UniProtKB/TrEMBL annotation:
Name of the protein in question: ATP-dependent RNA helicase
Biased composition (Low complexity): 12-25, 77-87
Family annotation (SUPFAM superfamilies): P-loop containing nucleoside triphosphate hydrolases
EC code: 3.6.4.13
Free-text comment about domains: The Q motif is unique to and characteristic of the DEAD box family of RNA helicases and controls ATP binding and hydrolysis.
GO molecular function: ATP binding; hydrolase activity; RNA binding; RNA helicase activity
Naturally occurring in which organism (per UniProt): Skeletonema marinoi
Chain ranges of the Helicase ATP-binding domain: 214-432
Superkingdom to which the source organism belongs: Eukaryota
Enzyme superclass (EC): hydrolase
Amino acid sequence: MFHVGRFDPTAKPKAAPASASSAGGAKKRRTGDGSKGKSKKSKKDDDVIADAGAREAVVIDDAPTQLKNDDDKGNHSDSSSSVPSSSESDDSSVESAQDNVHKSTLKVIAPSQPISGDSRKANRKRREQDDEAIDDFDADFDIVENSAAKDDTIITAATLRQNEHTPFTATIEEAAKTWNLPQFLVNNLKADSYENFFPIQCMVIPDVIESERNAHLRGARDVCVHAPTGSGKTLAFVLPLLTALHNQSPTSTGGARGLRRLRALVVLPGRDLAKQVYDVFVRYAKGSDIKIGLAVGGGNKKGDLANERRSLVVETYNDTIREIRTDDGALLRRKVGGLYESASARLRHSFEPTSLGKALDAYDGTLKSDSGPQVFPKVGGRSAVDILVCTPGRLMDHLETPGFTLQHLKYLVVDEADRLVNQPYQNWVGRY
Ligand SMILES: Nc1ncnc2c1ncn2[C@@H]1O[C@H](COP(=O)(O)OP(=O)(O)OP(=O)(O)O)[C@@H](O)[C@H]1O
């Protein structure tokens, strides 16, 4: 299942969609993850959330591997409900997904769900036309049709096909042109010899891109995608994210500041999974200036975390220099090794650039007041990456990394959400 949308930062973050694994869908590339999550929840992180403003989220999960077209069984969703109703266990995972995210902004793209009402006939005809292209998937891509589509909370396959005019048989180039994919992505897809987008990609990619384009008008929304293992969900989120970040990058928009910010976070339940998704991002980001980071932990070497920190945050790392000085040489602070930016960089990225002392305190995460030391959100953060692919445990480690901030995060992707919420790390959602 795959979910995209905008977080309400004032809402209490909830766990990702309930388990779909019980309905099947064991991911063939699943592996264990040895990284350990931390359980403590700090006000600091809450503050970061509160300061962050609206963000978008993507939750991705597997659909059952044995999807079945329910049309002929007479299973219809209730057209008066915003949630597809069915006795199928798959449906309950979708319902749970919707319960666990903001209903008002949620779109569900969930192949295998029954199609309701009068549109069944028309949809069946459309599916027949598409059958040739989706043989590999046993024509399992049926989408929920629901009256909630009227208020755009649920997008159906029929809606998408009508709106986007991108049949599954369109070539990569035709579809890319229709969706305005940047040329570097087209080149990379061609390099992989892909000829057509998979059905789930035809449904999701234009939808997310379109949603992003119109976010200023009607707000971005969450999207849940529920599709079988091997159906191409990875590219279904990789391509729209790269498109959006490329369009917003300082070089493509002609921006002068050139500041790189961590704008997209992709969380997976295991190191191997994260590495695979990271590789896909790196391969498809080729030709753009988008930088991808990987934070998975699990290395045995002592300096692994420090190395990872160096790769994620632009900073000065020095074990021997233990003094922070102003540009004119005045001693500001002594540190026992570790990570820090130059004083001028800290100043530049603090909320209060007129107060160097306060800026340094803010950057360190503490601000002294009459009532004693207070937790203060890390601010600014000169990220070395635009997208971070990580495991939850390592993400929590990096919440302590100086200069690392989720303040500028715009997109959140949660892959295999069922596994993530079933693991002990699930409190990472709250910490985020
Ligand atoms: N449009 C396409 N044309 C041809 N091959 C594709 C296309 N999109 C993805 N693939 C390939 O299909 C395979 C499965 O894709 P992917 O891993 O994204 O599926 P998935 O739905 O994420 O599966 P899983 O649930 O195992 O993660 C990959 O080898 C990928 O390279």
